[in-house]
Input
Amino acid sequence: MIKKKKEFQQVYFKGLSPTSVRHTVIEETVKEIIRLAEKELGKPAKDLTVLDVGSGWGEYVLELANHTKEVVGVEPYKKLYEEAIKNKKPNVNFFNALIEDFTYGKKFDLVISLTTIEHMPNVIKSFTTIYKLMKDKSLLYVTAPNKLWPLEPHYRLPFLSYLPLSIANPYLKMFRKVESFEDSSYALTYFQTKKLFSSFNWKYSFVLPDPKAVYLGCGEDSSANKLIKKVGIRLIKQFSFFWIFSKGFIIVARKGK
Output
């Protein structure tokens, strides 16, 4: 069992180069998540216990810890976990584990999963564990890229996510000098995402950001990105069909119906 986990990490994260996120984006993302959580749960942020699935080097965990009672970060990649624990706070705990193997002594008011679905080869198993870790009537906040968005977000190569690994890998190696796309190859389409969330006993919705938002996935500064965001939001508001071609998704789920 331990051997499988080691092999998984070596393949799963091979070639993945994490990029830094502007602190303004981190702050605004956390502010938006807390706003939604307080509204939906009817509890002040200072009383919330939070789980961050795929917490990376802990940038969102540490910001959440400034506002909430307790934050737990679960990160399967050991190098990122080792970076995270360097900045540990009294109300923060980090664990180096796959979420599907993670257990904890209590459940959470709020669970976040920020751009992690595309790294989950066992997405149903992962979300089954997430569901079990949530209190009744707790909240889940998820962001995820759309598999059908033409420009793959991790490596910025056109149509990379459309391709089978047998073609994606040499394509990636040719243009980015990276051996394998497997680490980021599990993104879902709009309908696949709906199917995933419909598998659990929670009420969920796809949420559109404010056109002026700078939180996660919306913080790009270029004029082209701002225009794409503005036009995309307007199209989806008028015709839900355009969710199929959205750059990514924000999904908010409340456990229990």
Notes: Confidence is low (pLDDT under 50) at residues 1-16. Residues 5 and 54 are 15 Å apart (CA to CA).
